[in-house]
Amino acid sequence: MSLGLGYWNLVQESVTQNKAVGFEEVGAVNQCCDGIQFCLEPALASGAMWSADEIAELCYLHYRTRLPKQGKPDPDREWTSLAAVVKVESSTQREVLASPGNLQVTKEVVAMGTGTKCIGQNKMRKTDTTIGRHCRKFEDEKCKPGDILNDSHAEIVAKRSFQRYLLHQMWLAASHQQCSIFIPGTETGKWKLKPNTIFVFFSSHTPCGDASIIPISEPENQLSKPVTGDDAAGQSERRSNHDHLGPEDKRKSEKTASNHIIKRMKTDDDGYFSVIPEDLTVQQVSVKREDDTNPKSCECSADMQTANKETGLGRPKVVDVYRTGAKCVPGELGDARIPGLGYHCVGLLRVKPGRGDRTCSMSCSDKLARWNVLGCQGALLMHFLQYPVYLSAIVVGKCPYSQEAMRRAIVERCQHISFLPDGFVPQEVKLLQSDLRFEHSRQAIQEVQTNSKTKLVPCSAAISWSAVPEQPLDVTSDGFRQGTTKKRIGSHQSRMKTLETYWDYKEAALNYQEAWKVLRSQALLGWVKNATEYLHFT
Questions:
Q1: Catalytic pick among 54, 155, 278, 290
Q2: Crossing angle for the helix pair 364-374 and 510-522, nearest 10 degrees?
């Protein structure tokens, strides 16, 4: 599921040996491609040549026909989430000149992932000898770093699969094979994406974290798309005002609510929904840290500074917000946790929830915001790329959705970043929603099992698929490759093709690390960084 060491070395060797070869020959072609880039890229990225429903339908078809039954949920009692990366490619300049006015695009799924799980910190593997008592699945065995996947949410699995695809395409380019998506860049030894190619990210559900904090109206027609009973990201929950609070918290929240007025955030149709309580005098609200010590104040975001207006006549009343299961980063600003509309504070960094064990994995909303500035290729591939590989659009399937929440979470939080290294630019990624629902989503399964008394649970397995010739498919469970036994733990077969000196390779990508440092300092200050002991695996 990760990048293979042998494959990585092969790419590195090919690029090193051929870094000056082939650049002069393709100079004219490269210049030609740059000339049509301005014409083709806006049309491709805008969705003028494809629709959200077409992207969703293509991904659902790929899921049904190309992924095995193994790893998919049992539709009688399980559900899962789906994510994918779709390559959208326009005609080449030669084809455009040969047939002007007949510009065609091809769409191909190049990476796909399913999954809903994330392991807790106690199951993470450090570099030093970690005895199996910390690994419940293998109680008396040693679990090495790299043996277990920390984050198996569908979006993250799909992104890993996409990186495998990019690595294979890099090998094709270094081998002088014209079918690669990469062409030589202007810097020696560097490559760049062909200008007639873009990538669209698809998710069957709203990403967990900030993008899942969505207003609920009554009747539910307040959003740009009708809100359904589906669980946003499989983790957002619509809860009554006091269901989630203990007696002491209820009394505190009632007292707090009586001393505050409600600030309102503008919704897509110029209505307003309440988000955070505003003190009548200090214009901010006291918020507890996630560890319930040393309260901090959560300043209202710019979006929340809208005056306290009444909902217009005839407008549906907003009665609550979808909850996200992602928790605020420990030690940073926390949620107000006021019952109902004021429960969450928006715009905060969050970590994915664990089952009794806090995770160290940032929410999918936060990771998408990061990718929107640093690219999806990661640090390793930046050794060979002149520019990052960005997503041109994000399409979400039919589920609870808010255009404003998506834009706030993925685009606006990092829009102001400055002084990035050359090539890194915060993107205006296009955000769209499809009207097509994923067949194995939580709501789809609930509707089929309406009369069943069986409790629905998320599928424990995750599927990774990549458009590569060698081992395109991986199925994992609880972070391990499915079928791994005690005897095989730590072996090559059980590992997800990890890299040797993984940390050193990442740190050596200087421009990427500098961009990441700038992004953290200006926008994502509370990002949880895993200790290097978790990353020095071989």
A1: 155
A2: 130
Distance CA 440, CA 115 (A): 11
Kindly state the tokens that stand for 77: 């009692």
Residue written as tokens 């990890």? 498
Find where tokens 């993925």 sit: 410
Is the per-residue pLDDT at 303 higher than 50? no
Side-chain-side CA neighbours of residue 379 (13 Å)? 17
pLDDT in tens, 68-93: 999 999 999 999 999 999 999 987 65
The share of the chain scoring above pLDDT 90, in percent, equals 43
Contact present, 464 and 151 (Cβ < 8 Å): no
Q: Is the pTM of this model over 0.70?
A: yes
Question: In degrees rounded to 5, what are phi and psi of residue 460?
Answer: -80, -15
Rounded CA-CA distance 478/119 in Å is 7
The confidence band for 478, taking pLDDT boundaries of 50, 70 and 90, is confident
Count of beta carbons in the 10 Å neighbourhood of residue 402: 27
Is pLDDT at 234 greater than 90 in this prediction? no
As a whole number, mean pLDDT of residues 130-137 equals: 40
Backbone angles phi, psi at 105, to 5 degrees: -125, 150
Query: Could you give the 3-state DSSP secondary structure of residue 319?
Result: strand
- Assigned token pair, 195: 């200008």
- Which residues contact residue 527 at a Cβ distance below 8 angstroms, ignoring those fewer than 6 apart? 329, 349, 362, 366, 370, 520
Task: Provide the token pair at 259.
Answer: 């001393």
Residue 247 amino acid letter: P
**290 labelled catalytic:** no
- Distance (Å) of CA 10 to CA 7, 242, 316, 449: 5, 58, 59, 50
- Give Cα separations from 44 to 29, 61, 391 (angstroms): 20, 22, 12
Q: Are 265 and 273 in contact (CB under 8 A)?
A: yes
Identify the residue with better confidence: 452 or 385.
Answer: 385
